[in-house]
Amino acid sequence: MKPTVAPYPTSRLRRLRKSPSIRAMVRENTLTPDDFIWPVFLMDGEDDETPIPSMPGVRRQTIDRVVKSAAMASDLGIPAMCLFPYTAMEHRTEDCAMAWSPDNLTNQAIRAIKDEVPEMTVMTDIALDPYNINGHDGYVDNGEILNDETVDALVKMALAQAEAGADILGPSDMMDGRIGAIRSALESEGHQNVAILSYTAKYASGFYGPFRDAVGASGALKGDKKTYQMDPANSEEAMRLVERDLMEGADMIMVKPGMPYLDICQRVKSTFGVPTFAYQVSGEYAMIQAAVQNGWLDGEKVMLESLMCFKRAGCDGILTYFAPEAARILNG
Ligand code: PBG
């Protein structure tokens, strides 16, 4: 690369850091509420919520409350929400049939939000873990996670969500072939305008711990997810996955977790140039909140800084539990 900077003192880079207005003029990236997808947790009942101890400030909400949250988020300029159900234990079975019931929590919530707050883009999660007796994202046979049988179930789940009115489906299961199978089912069932934001580079991460508490899957989970989620040591493999998911019909790509994987975000965006999202996951949120609660970090500063860094890395947007708080600050 040619040098673009003359030597000191001809060039003094501090000249462009002199004042807030000059810094604003030369700022390379911006963060706005448009960048956020807000993940929320659903629970049964009416007009109620329960806090999630490992995620201070986050709660599971009944559908009526989530609808109110959707209206609030829309007023804040947040374009999209992603729904995660806390399924009652009696609805978790070996065949995971609740996953494609038109009346499961997610599908009820999709309809309720689209009825009351139609401008809100509703995203879902596709994986069997909230409905599976053993906490895995796929069917388990003798300790093995079955790929193709799981994909058949995921297709049914996807169609039920599309039928309920979901705008974006988020397959988070990491089975092979699921994007193509879901895309062709959507096409043949008249849901050609439903988008897929694939959890493409999803790593087998320790940072999902608090989320598994939130959806009640931690106690149930036997073993780990390393035979389907990616090895944190790998980067080339993420490129192969992105290429494959795009060929199979994904509209957008996700990297997950976020902060420790910014190199992957940047590679995906610079190699493929497609809409790229990062998930700042539950453990990243918990880590920041724990330090803030101890008085060790300034919450507002590190929240906005961490979110801006995703933009700098090339992300088009971020799934973040901070969405409403950050939007409130950004709106002034
Ligand atoms: C389920 C799913 C997980 C998350 C999103 N979808 C957990 C997992 O894979 O175990 C994690 C989100 C977070 O930690 O915030 N397949």
UniProtKB/TrEMBL annotation:
GO terms under biological process: protoporphyrinogen IX biosynthetic process
Class of the enzyme per the UniProt entry, highest EC level: lyase
InterPro entries xref list? ALAD, ALAD_AS, Aldolase_TIM
Coiled coil, from the record: none
Checking Pfam families in the record gives: ALAD (PF00490)
Keywords assigned by UniProt?
A: Heme biosynthesis, Lyase, Porphyrin biosynthesis
GO terms under cellular component = cytosol
Cited SMART domains = ALAD
GO MF, any single term: zinc ion binding
Catalytic center residues:
K202, K256
Pathway(s): Porphyrin-containing compound metabolism; protoporphyrin-IX biosynthesis; coproporphyrinogen-III from 5-aminolevulinate: step 1/4
EC no.?
A: 4.2.1.24
Q: Which reaction does it catalyse?
A: 2 5-aminolevulinate = porphobilinogen + 2 H2O + H(+)
Q: How does it assemble?
A: Homooctamer.
Q: Which NCBIfam families match?
A: PRK09283.1
Q: Which family does it belong to?
A: Belongs to the ALAD family.
| Name of the featured protein | Delta-aminolevulinic acid dehydratase
From which source organism is this entry?
Answer: Marivivens niveibacter
